[in-house]
Amino acid sequence: MLKYPKDYLDDVMVRFAYNSNAIEGNKLTLGQTRAVILNETITSTGIEGVKLKDLYAADNQKDAFNELIYLANNNAPLNMDTLLKLQFELTKNTIATAGKFKTNENYIAGADFKTASLQVVYQLMHEWLDNTSFRIENSKNDDELLRTLIETHIDFERMHPFDDGNGRTGRELINLELAKHEMSFLVVRVTDRPFYLQNLADRNVDNLVGYAKERMAEEKDRYTAYVSQNQKQEQFYKDEIKKLDESTISAKEKIYGVRDTSAFDKTDIQLNRVYARKFLKENHFEVSDKNIKEISENIALNRINNREKNKDFSVQAGYKSEKEKLDNSLVKKTYNNKFKEHNNHISKKLYPSKTQDQNLEI
């Protein structure tokens, strides 16, 4: 699956949720949908006449989309569990039969055909899943895969296997497979609803494939823009971290270049190490010899700086200065990357390392 920047995922999730819901008659605006999904809030302004079901439907889209990303990341097969899980996420709190096939015969308004009957819907969906999975696995290229998704989407919508959420579930399934195959998402716009529904009814695969390609090309441009911005931001962080590292090296040289070493006799060095361990433990960093050495040197530097400024240069003051550095978000990110704790708690308990500071605690 493609690596999606988080801000892009938020963007496409909101747009997909709004349009997919609005196609089915949801009255929330794009802004209101964004507020529900990203902020979990909504203002009273403009909310008159909006049904509670519409609010739940917007919130459900967030859960369903997150489930879609999880399934795509794990290359989940298109099977009954996947189908019912997505339908459940989309319709929970809105219908009594969320995650189950329909319990009442249903009809598509204006359609000249019948949907799948209650007696055969389960069997038909088994066949649909098997057939769709087979065709997807045997698609030779992206064009063939997209055509398969559109053709099987038409079949799915004509069967209408659920009491509610058929359109939303069908469009969710398309995007699940697109994500699994590292293709752009397809956002069917509510403004194109008449075209979309008419071509579904007419089984016009060519028109829908052409439409999907246009929308997906636009989505690819949008995704690329987010990736580019994300890469620039990451490079900025790397440059800033490099500057911090260089300043740290310079500071350490300053430590070792100081002539007056009265603050660095054996006892003080040991105290610096003890407080370094305290710092690492309190901030959930890995307590390793390497990290203890680096933080203790930082504490020593803090003490030197304090002494040069005629301030308290005790080990406690040096430790406090080190803690205050974490108020800077960039420094905190650097420390998290450099000193982060690894998942080796069990081995540590069974085989504790015997460092020279093992019995020294604050």
Automatic annotation (TrEMBL):
Taxonomically, which superkingdom?
Bacteria
For this UniProt record, the keywords arranged alphabetically read as follows: ATP-binding, Nucleotide-binding
Show which residues form the site (Important for autoinhibition of adenylyltransferase activity). E24
Active site (record annotation): H160
**Binding annotation for ATP:** D164, G165, N166, G167, R168, T169, G170, R171, N204
Is ATP-binding found in the keyword set?
A: yes
Does this entry carry the keyword DNA-binding? no
List the GO molecular function terms. Answer: ATP binding
For this entry, the protein name equals Fic family protein
Protein species of origin = Lactobacillus gasseri 224-1
